[in-house]
Design a protein that fits this description.
The chain contains six helices and 19 strands. The chain has two domains: about 70 residues, no CATH class; about 220 residues, outer membrane lipoprotein receptor (LolB), chain A, CATH 2.50.20. A hairpin with a 7-residue loop joins strand 5 and strand 6. By secondary structure, the protein is an alpha+beta fold. The chain has a 13-stranded antiparallel beta sheet with strand order 8-7-6-5-4-3-19-18-15-14-13-12-11. A two-stranded antiparallel ribbon has the order 1-2. It has a two-stranded antiparallel ribbon with strand order 9-10. The N terminus is likely disordered.
């Protein structure tokens, strides 16, 4: 028994266009194509203006093949959209860079800028996207703190009665900005668009274009490569609001933490390279990472300035 049904198409489509689409799908189906039979009704009707053809009659088997092939193509090209939203992918990558319920670590920063080398060691406490950074060395900066709460940031120095409001965009040292040492909240701070899939050091990655959704973030726009398999950020390029790239960064993940009883990779190294002067490089090494309950008092600004 041969089942047939009417397919209603927009006016912009005519029999020739549909036939071309059908032939393209037939070619793509390779061996299956021979088993597919389709035909068009020869009695093509026109409307009173004779501007377009009325819809043809297509066999049930061919229409079913169209649906199957279209579904396979869509899900093969953009698996991220079928499995996880861009925001969900970014949230997973944020966890590996400190955005969890409670974690602390140390950062050793070394920058080489125009031939001059500087070093700093900081201790970071983070809970979700709130962070407290305390300078441990050298002695001249020991005891200074950077507090970040809900995109607002302050500098606290022993002897100062009041904290100083600062921006995450301000330079910390070398190529590192204040916001670079805090936990990331890219999933909340940026609107993400999946550009394509790309390869970084042989690893298949999602390439996202991130555009800031508020003015308090560290960067206006970021191109961010996230490992498709490991769901961690492996490369970034940072741009000004005018679209000029001014630095890039690569990441390594040799640390590990437990999240809900499951091991999760955690960043161990971030290397920032100036886009103009390639010899200007800032390296941040992360160590002594451990999950820890961080009390509210750690982020209490009034307590920190006493």
């Amino acid at each position: 028994m041969n089942f047939k049904f009417q397919v209603i198409l927009p006016k912009a489509y005519n029999c020739l266009h549909l036939k071309n689409v059908a032939q393209s799908f037939r070619a793509a189906s390779i061996g299956t194509a021979k088993a597919v039979h389709y035909r068009f009704n020869k009695d093509v009707m026109h409307d009173k203006n004779e501007n377009y053809f009325m819809p043809p009659v297509i066999s049930f088997k061919f229409t079913a093949l169209l649906v199957i092939l279209f579904s396979v193509i869509v899900f093969h090209i953009k698996p991220a959209l079928a499995e996880m939203t861009p925001k969900e992918v970014l949230s997973k990558a944020d966890e590996a860079r400190g955005n969890v319920e409670g974690v602390e670590w140390e950062i050793k920063i070394e920058s080489v800028e125009n031939g001059r080398t500087q070093k700093r060691i900081l201790k970071i406490k983070a809970r979700d996207f709130n962070s407290l950074a305390e300078f441990l060395s050298p002695p001249k900066v020991k005891g200074r703190k950077l507090l970040m709460i809900d995109r607002n940031m302050w500098f606290i120095k022993p002897g100062l009665r009041k904290p100083v409001p600062i921006s995450p965009r301000q330079k910390l040292m070398g190529g590192a900005s204040n916001g670079d040492i805090a936990s990331t909240n890219y999933a909340g701070d940026y609107n993400a668009t999946l550009v394509s899939e790309d390869t970084v050091n042989g690893e298949t990655c999602y390439l996202f274009n991130l555009v800031a959704n508020n003015k308090k973030v560290t960067y206006d726009r970021i191109r961010y490569w996230i490992s498709k398999e490991r769901l961690i950020g492996v490369k970034s390029e940072f741009f000004t609001v005018s679209g000029k790239m001014f630095k890039s960064a690569t990441f390594k993940y040799e640390n590990s933490i437990l999240i809900k009883g499951k091991p999760k990779l955690f960043v161990s190294k971030m290397v920032i390279t100036d886009a103009v002067v390639k010899s200007n490089v800032t390296t941040m090494n992360y160590s002594k990472v451990r999950i820890k309950k961080i009390p509210d008092s750690a982020f209490n600004l009034n307590l920190l300035v006493r």
